[in-house]
């Protein structure tokens, strides 16, 4: 019965089927087929035997990943960074969106909005250049400024503790323009009558923001948070790699799952263990987003992602 | 009378809080704007500073002197940089055109209400954002089974499809009244012809928006080049820059091409000058294209 349904539909809309086919094949080849490589997580990979020819070794790779301590450390780092980045970058974007929507100077607003959107347009390689320009020990701007104030230069690269801050600041910096556009769109949709009613009741600007703007932004904020939570175990590889690079001294504080995976790929060591890390990351991400979305759906169906 | 008084006092209260709010707001926005602009200013001023000054005094926020030394080296042997520009432009143009065409066609089909499997197909695409094979499996598959090593296709194909762009495009297509499609059908036009001759011309701003997103993605990509491209003549601009920043050998090569010894090379300014040359086009185009990105992000933020 169902098959007939498909055949019927296929006959009716044959051209439409052919029109989606190219993209479907592309995604099949580039995204779905590589997933089969995840079986490596249960194998002892040898290049000469290939992905499917290598021997099985059960859960050995997972055991090794966590016994060595690496698994815990990179999981912890990934989650901590994502939580900090979630709070700081979304918080800043919400603040900026509210402020821009409330101010009246049109030219000033347009210029600042353009300027804070600028970092989104440049590649992380350029951001890496900025970092070099600011922080490098011998010639960096920061040490130069410190010297003019008569202070001793600091070698930031030997203090792992400051890197979470640097990463979090640059992350917020790069995304604030992009995210604030989303929140500004949400604010624009608020009914102006709400504000007028507020004015009549004599509320001040802070009360208006607290009682009207923020609650009206709730659906957008929840969507953004959900999207970020779905990626809580994924590190932004491009950012971490360009900011930290191959600076072994900092790995303890800055290594996330994705940079760890990349390094094993680079040195071609322990690909089985790396695949185990990837599988563990992908499966957990999938479960987390499904569970959180399910809960949100139960509480407030409109706010769910899907 | 008392009513009047409360309204008046409200007005005064309102102005006071408003002033506080405005001061905070302006300070915040100005500080943030400076934070966004300063790295660019420092980059540019560093690239115009002479090597002597950088070595002894370091980079400064505003330029202490002005010299074109670094740019002279960059353009003394422009072959390398022009080739990297060529690769980047080629990849961006081909990828954007192909991606835009197939993406729009897909978006059109999954926006058709009378197409029964549109939700299944949408989920087929969406699922890849929830679950994927990750860097290692993808890398091994691309190299061993698709033989993409050192092939420009490795730069083009992975960035052609993006679920987020697909959803934005679907919103653009949905805004076209379905009656147009119906009447074209009655006139006997085939599905593909409807798409080409009726839908595409009506999607100008959607095409511009997604086209720019795709182009920016290609232009800023260095990750795929790092994984898949071996030979230097296929390096796109961003990866060439990255390579230059990271590897001493790259500097030595530039020195030999420019007929200088590495010690005489303005290494520190050169790195920044290269970054300026690589970012230039984006900054120049930015004022004109910005509004399309704002539009795309705004549409993408509304759940479809």
Question: What does this molecule look like?
Answer:
The complex is a heterodimer of chains A (306) and B (304). Chain A is mostly helical. Chain A has two domains: 2-56, no CATH class; 66-303, MetI-like (MetI-like fold, Orthogonal Bundle), CATH 1.10.3720.10. Helices cover 73% and strands 1% of the residues of chain A. A two-stranded antiparallel ribbon of chain A has the order 1-2. In chain A, helix 5 runs antiparallel to helix 11 (205-229) and helix 14 packs antiparallel against helix 15 (271-299). Chain A is globular, with a radius of gyration of 25 Å. Chain B has a domain at 78-246: MetI-like (MetI-like fold, Orthogonal Bundle). Helices cover 77% and strands 0% of the residues of chain B. In chain B, helix 4 (79-111) crosses helix 11 and helix 11 runs antiparallel to helix 15. Classes of the chains: A mainly alpha (306), B mainly alpha (304). Chains A and B meet through helix 2, helix 5, helix 6, helix 7 and helix 8 of A and helix 1, helix 2, helix 4, helix 5 and helix 6 of B.
